[in-house]
Write a structure and sequence with these properties.
binds adenosine monophosphate; three-stranded antiparallel sheet; Rossmann fold; 2 domains; alpha/beta; 10 helices; globular; about 280 residues; six-stranded parallel sheet; Pantoate--beta-alanine Ligase, Chain: A,domain 2
Protein backbone atom coordinates (compact mmCIF):
# COMPACT_ATOMS: atom_id res chain seq x y z
CA UNK A 1 0.00 0.00 0.00
CA UNK A 2 1.34 3.34 -1.09
CA UNK A 3 0.83 6.43 1.10
CA UNK A 4 0.91 9.67 -0.87
CA UNK A 5 0.74 13.20 0.54
CA UNK A 6 1.57 15.30 -2.53
CA UNK A 7 -1.06 16.27 -5.12
CA UNK A 8 1.43 16.06 -8.00
CA UNK A 9 2.48 12.56 -6.96
CA UNK A 10 -1.14 11.39 -6.63
CA UNK A 11 -2.01 12.83 -10.06
CA UNK A 12 1.01 11.09 -11.56
CA UNK A 13 0.06 7.76 -9.95
CA UNK A 14 -3.50 8.13 -11.29
CA UNK A 15 -2.20 8.93 -14.77
CA UNK A 16 -0.03 5.79 -14.79
CA UNK A 17 -2.99 3.65 -13.69
CA UNK A 18 -5.17 5.17 -16.42
CA UNK A 19 -2.51 4.57 -19.08
CA UNK A 20 -2.33 0.94 -17.95
CA UNK A 21 -6.10 0.70 -18.50
CA UNK A 22 -6.90 0.31 -14.78
CA UNK A 23 -10.28 1.46 -13.47
CA UNK A 24 -9.89 3.54 -10.30
CA UNK A 25 -12.37 3.18 -7.42
CA UNK A 26 -12.22 5.99 -4.87
CA UNK A 27 -13.46 6.39 -1.29
CA UNK A 28 -13.06 9.92 0.12
CA UNK A 29 -13.09 10.14 3.95
CA UNK A 30 -12.00 12.29 6.87
CA UNK A 31 -10.34 9.26 8.49
CA UNK A 32 -10.80 7.68 11.93
CA UNK A 33 -12.14 4.76 9.94
CA UNK A 34 -14.86 2.41 11.15
CA UNK A 35 -16.94 -0.39 9.65
CA UNK A 36 -19.04 2.13 7.66
CA UNK A 37 -15.94 3.31 5.81
CA UNK A 38 -14.74 -0.31 5.47
CA UNK A 39 -18.00 -1.28 3.73
CA UNK A 40 -17.32 1.40 1.10
CA UNK A 41 -13.72 0.23 0.71
CA UNK A 42 -14.74 -3.43 0.25
CA UNK A 43 -17.30 -2.50 -2.39
CA UNK A 44 -14.70 -0.29 -4.10
CA UNK A 45 -12.21 -3.16 -3.98
CA UNK A 46 -14.65 -5.48 -5.75
CA UNK A 47 -15.54 -2.90 -8.41
CA UNK A 48 -12.23 -1.24 -9.29
CA UNK A 49 -8.87 -2.50 -10.54
CA UNK A 50 -7.24 0.01 -8.21
CA UNK A 51 -8.62 1.30 -4.93
CA UNK A 52 -7.74 4.76 -3.65
CA UNK A 53 -8.71 6.01 -0.17
CA UNK A 54 -8.35 9.66 0.76
CA UNK A 55 -8.04 10.78 4.36
CA UNK A 56 -8.39 14.52 4.70
CA UNK A 57 -10.10 16.50 7.46
CA UNK A 58 -11.31 19.25 5.17
CA UNK A 59 -11.12 22.60 7.00
CA UNK A 60 -13.42 24.47 4.59
CA UNK A 61 -16.42 22.28 5.43
CA UNK A 62 -16.24 23.14 9.15
CA UNK A 63 -17.88 26.25 10.60
CA UNK A 64 -15.89 28.52 12.94
CA UNK A 65 -17.45 27.05 16.10
CA UNK A 66 -17.34 23.43 14.94
CA UNK A 67 -15.02 20.54 15.85
CA UNK A 68 -12.23 20.89 13.22
CA UNK A 69 -9.45 21.01 15.80
CA UNK A 70 -10.64 18.10 17.91
CA UNK A 71 -11.92 15.91 15.05
CA UNK A 72 -10.51 12.42 15.88
CA UNK A 73 -7.44 11.34 13.93
CA UNK A 74 -5.56 8.02 13.83
CA UNK A 75 -3.54 7.55 10.62
CA UNK A 76 -1.84 4.38 11.84
CA UNK A 77 -5.13 2.68 12.73
CA UNK A 78 -6.67 3.89 9.47
CA UNK A 79 -3.80 2.40 7.46
CA UNK A 80 -4.28 -0.97 9.19
CA UNK A 81 -7.98 -0.98 8.18
CA UNK A 82 -7.08 0.24 4.69
CA UNK A 83 -4.60 -2.63 4.24
CA UNK A 84 -7.20 -5.15 5.40
CA UNK A 85 -9.64 -3.77 2.85
CA UNK A 86 -7.12 -4.02 0.01
CA UNK A 87 -6.49 -0.31 -0.53
CA UNK A 88 -3.72 0.36 -3.08
CA UNK A 89 -3.14 4.06 -2.40
CA UNK A 90 -3.91 6.22 0.64
CA UNK A 91 -3.93 9.89 -0.36
CA UNK A 92 -3.55 12.04 2.73
CA UNK A 93 -2.61 15.62 1.88
CA UNK A 94 -2.11 18.47 4.36
CA UNK A 95 -4.50 21.42 4.44
CA UNK A 96 -1.64 23.62 3.15
CA UNK A 97 -1.20 21.30 0.15
CA UNK A 98 -4.93 21.42 -0.66
CA UNK A 99 -5.48 25.12 0.09
CA UNK A 100 -2.31 27.10 -0.56
CA UNK A 101 -2.33 30.87 0.02
CA UNK A 102 -4.53 32.61 -2.52
CA UNK A 103 -7.04 29.76 -2.86
CA UNK A 104 -10.44 31.35 -3.62
CA UNK A 105 -12.57 29.01 -5.73
CA UNK A 106 -15.78 27.32 -4.58
CA UNK A 107 -18.33 24.91 -6.02
CA UNK A 108 -21.92 25.51 -4.90
CA UNK A 109 -24.90 23.24 -5.48
CA UNK A 110 -27.82 25.59 -4.86
CA UNK A 111 -31.24 24.25 -3.79
CA UNK A 112 -30.25 20.81 -2.51
CA UNK A 113 -27.79 22.43 -0.09
CA UNK A 114 -30.37 24.77 1.51
CA UNK A 115 -32.36 22.59 3.96
CA UNK A 116 -31.36 20.11 6.71
CA UNK A 117 -27.58 20.16 7.36
CA UNK A 118 -27.19 23.04 4.90
CA UNK A 119 -29.45 25.22 7.08
CA UNK A 120 -27.66 24.30 10.33
CA UNK A 121 -24.15 24.43 8.88
CA UNK A 122 -23.88 27.44 6.53
CA UNK A 123 -21.17 26.91 3.91
CA UNK A 124 -20.70 23.25 4.85
CA UNK A 125 -21.82 21.81 1.53
CA UNK A 126 -19.83 24.37 -0.47
CA UNK A 127 -16.79 23.03 1.36
CA UNK A 128 -17.80 19.45 0.61
CA UNK A 129 -18.57 20.06 -3.08
CA UNK A 130 -15.33 21.98 -3.53
CA UNK A 131 -13.10 19.38 -1.89
CA UNK A 132 -14.80 16.48 -3.68
CA UNK A 133 -14.32 18.21 -7.04
CA UNK A 134 -10.70 18.82 -6.20
CA UNK A 135 -10.19 15.23 -5.04
CA UNK A 136 -11.83 13.93 -8.24
CA UNK A 137 -9.40 16.03 -10.29
CA UNK A 138 -6.46 14.67 -8.30
CA UNK A 139 -7.47 10.98 -8.07
CA UNK A 140 -9.32 10.79 -11.42
CA UNK A 141 -11.64 8.00 -10.30
CA UNK A 142 -13.93 6.03 -12.60
CA UNK A 143 -16.11 5.25 -9.61
CA UNK A 144 -16.53 6.96 -6.22
CA UNK A 145 -18.36 5.50 -3.23
CA UNK A 146 -20.31 7.50 -0.64
CA UNK A 147 -22.43 6.44 2.34
CA UNK A 148 -26.17 7.13 2.62
CA UNK A 149 -25.44 8.06 6.24
CA UNK A 150 -24.78 11.49 4.69
CA UNK A 151 -27.86 11.35 2.46
CA UNK A 152 -27.94 15.05 1.59
CA UNK A 153 -24.21 15.02 0.79
CA UNK A 154 -24.74 12.08 -1.58
CA UNK A 155 -27.65 13.88 -3.28
CA UNK A 156 -25.52 17.02 -3.69
CA UNK A 157 -22.59 15.09 -5.13
CA UNK A 158 -24.82 13.24 -7.60
CA UNK A 159 -26.29 16.60 -8.70
CA UNK A 160 -22.86 18.20 -9.01
CA UNK A 161 -21.45 15.28 -11.03
CA UNK A 162 -24.42 15.43 -13.42
CA UNK A 163 -24.41 19.24 -13.68
CA UNK A 164 -20.66 19.50 -14.30
CA UNK A 165 -20.48 16.36 -16.52
CA UNK A 166 -17.79 14.87 -14.31
CA UNK A 167 -16.76 11.48 -15.75
CA UNK A 168 -17.25 9.49 -12.55
CA UNK A 169 -19.91 7.00 -11.48
CA UNK A 170 -21.31 7.71 -8.00
CA UNK A 171 -22.23 4.70 -5.86
CA UNK A 172 -24.38 5.16 -2.72
CA UNK A 173 -23.89 2.60 0.06
CA UNK A 174 -26.23 1.58 2.92
CA UNK A 175 -25.81 2.96 6.44
CA UNK A 176 -23.75 0.64 8.65
CA UNK A 177 -25.02 0.52 12.24
CA UNK A 178 -23.81 -0.80 15.57
CA UNK A 179 -25.69 -3.88 16.85
CA UNK A 180 -27.99 -1.63 18.93
CA UNK A 181 -28.91 0.58 15.98
CA UNK A 182 -26.57 3.57 16.40
CA UNK A 183 -25.29 4.67 12.98
CA UNK A 184 -21.51 4.35 12.90
CA UNK A 185 -19.70 7.69 12.90
CA UNK A 186 -16.21 8.91 13.70
CA UNK A 187 -17.93 11.42 16.02
CA UNK A 188 -19.34 8.59 18.18
CA UNK A 189 -15.86 8.63 19.77
CA UNK A 190 -16.86 11.90 21.53
CA UNK A 191 -19.69 10.22 23.46
CA UNK A 192 -19.45 9.27 27.15
CA UNK A 193 -21.17 5.96 28.08
CA UNK A 194 -24.31 7.87 29.19
CA UNK A 195 -24.34 9.96 26.03
CA UNK A 196 -23.84 6.80 23.98
CA UNK A 197 -27.14 5.54 25.49
CA UNK A 198 -28.92 8.84 24.74
CA UNK A 199 -27.60 8.66 21.17
CA UNK A 200 -29.79 5.61 20.59
CA UNK A 201 -32.75 8.00 20.44
CA UNK A 202 -31.90 8.79 16.79
CA UNK A 203 -32.24 5.22 15.55
CA UNK A 204 -35.16 4.61 17.92
CA UNK A 205 -36.99 7.61 16.43
CA UNK A 206 -36.34 6.21 12.98
CA UNK A 207 -37.64 2.81 14.02
CA UNK A 208 -40.78 4.39 15.53
CA UNK A 209 -41.57 6.33 12.36
CA UNK A 210 -40.93 3.27 10.20
CA UNK A 211 -43.27 1.21 12.39
CA UNK A 212 -46.04 3.82 12.26
CA UNK A 213 -45.56 4.11 8.49
CA UNK A 214 -45.78 0.31 8.11
CA UNK A 215 -48.97 0.41 10.20
CA UNK A 216 -50.52 2.86 7.73
CA UNK A 217 -49.79 6.34 9.16
CA UNK A 218 -49.18 8.80 6.30
CA UNK A 219 -49.47 12.17 8.05
CA UNK A 220 -46.04 13.81 8.23
CA UNK A 221 -46.88 16.16 11.14
CA UNK A 222 -48.09 13.30 13.34
CA UNK A 223 -45.03 11.19 12.54
CA UNK A 224 -42.68 14.07 13.33
CA UNK A 225 -44.50 14.78 16.60
CA UNK A 226 -44.16 11.15 17.73
CA UNK A 227 -40.44 11.07 16.87
CA UNK A 228 -39.78 14.42 18.58
CA UNK A 229 -41.48 13.25 21.77
CA UNK A 230 -39.36 10.11 21.83
CA UNK A 231 -36.12 12.07 21.48
CA UNK A 232 -37.00 14.88 23.88
CA UNK A 233 -37.71 12.29 26.58
CA UNK A 234 -33.90 11.98 26.81
CA UNK A 235 -32.63 14.84 29.00
CA UNK A 236 -29.26 15.11 27.20
CA UNK A 237 -30.72 15.39 23.68
CA UNK A 238 -31.66 18.53 21.76
CA UNK A 239 -33.07 18.35 18.26
CA UNK A 240 -31.29 20.35 15.57
CA UNK A 241 -33.76 19.18 12.91
CA UNK A 242 -36.16 16.30 12.40
CA UNK A 243 -37.87 16.36 9.05
CA UNK A 244 -39.73 14.36 6.44
CA UNK A 245 -38.83 15.38 2.90
CA UNK A 246 -39.01 14.08 -0.64
CA UNK A 247 -35.83 12.04 -1.15
CA UNK A 248 -35.22 13.34 -4.69
CA UNK A 249 -35.87 17.08 -4.29
CA UNK A 250 -35.58 17.42 -0.48
CA UNK A 251 -38.82 19.44 -0.56
CA UNK A 252 -41.03 19.12 2.55
CA UNK A 253 -44.04 16.78 2.35
CA UNK A 254 -47.30 16.75 4.28
CA UNK A 255 -48.10 13.14 3.40
CA UNK A 256 -45.38 10.54 3.36
CA UNK A 257 -44.72 7.70 0.92
CA UNK A 258 -42.01 5.17 0.04
CA UNK A 259 -39.95 7.99 -1.49
CA UNK A 260 -39.98 10.08 1.69
CA UNK A 261 -36.72 10.66 3.54
CA UNK A 262 -36.76 11.00 7.30
CA UNK A 263 -33.64 12.96 8.28
CA UNK A 264 -32.59 14.14 11.71
CA UNK A 265 -29.72 15.81 13.50
CA UNK A 266 -29.58 15.64 17.29
CA UNK A 267 -27.09 17.21 19.66
CA UNK A 268 -26.05 14.97 22.54
CA UNK A 269 -24.00 17.03 24.99
CA UNK A 270 -21.77 18.87 22.52
CA UNK A 271 -21.79 16.17 19.83
CA UNK A 272 -23.99 16.63 16.79
CA UNK A 273 -25.13 13.32 15.30
CA UNK A 274 -27.12 12.71 12.11
CA UNK A 275 -29.14 9.76 10.87
CA UNK A 276 -31.78 9.13 8.22
CA UNK A 277 -33.95 6.55 6.53
CA UNK A 278 -35.85 6.26 3.29
CA UNK A 279 -39.33 5.02 4.27
CA UNK A 280 -39.52 2.73 1.23
CA UNK A 281 -36.21 1.01 2.04
CA UNK A 282 -36.35 -2.41 3.64
CA UNK A 283 -34.47 -1.22 6.72
P1 LIG B 1 -16.54 10.81 6.74
O1 LIG B 1 -15.18 10.25 7.05
O2 LIG B 1 -17.44 10.90 7.93
O3 LIG B 1 -16.48 12.06 5.91
O4 LIG B 1 -17.24 9.72 5.81
C1 LIG B 1 -16.65 9.28 4.63
C2 LIG B 1 -17.65 8.45 3.85
O5 LIG B 1 -18.06 7.34 4.64
C3 LIG B 1 -18.91 9.24 3.49
O6 LIG B 1 -19.33 8.88 2.18
C4 LIG B 1 -19.89 8.76 4.54
O7 LIG B 1 -21.24 8.85 4.13
C5 LIG B 1 -19.47 7.32 4.71
N1 LIG B 1 -19.93 6.81 5.99
C6 LIG B 1 -19.69 7.35 7.22
N2 LIG B 1 -20.34 6.65 8.17
C7 LIG B 1 -21.01 5.66 7.54
C8 LIG B 1 -21.88 4.61 7.96
N3 LIG B 1 -22.19 4.43 9.24
N4 LIG B 1 -22.38 3.78 7.02
C9 LIG B 1 -22.07 3.95 5.71
N5 LIG B 1 -21.27 4.92 5.24
C10 LIG B 1 -20.75 5.76 6.14
Amino acid sequence: MNIITSIAEMQQAALLLKRAGKGIAFVPTMGYLHEGHASLLREGRSRGDSLVLSIFVNPIQFGPSEDLERYPRNLEGDCAIARECGVDIVFTPTAAEMYPPGFQTAIRVKELALPLCGASRPGHFDGVATVVTKLFNIVQPDLALFGKKDFQQLAIIRRMVADLSLPVEIVGMPIVREADGLAMSSRNAYLSPDQRQSALSLSKAIRLVRERYAAGERNAARLIEAARNLILAKPAATIDYLELRDAATLATVSDVSDTTLMALAVIIGTTRLIDNTLLGDER
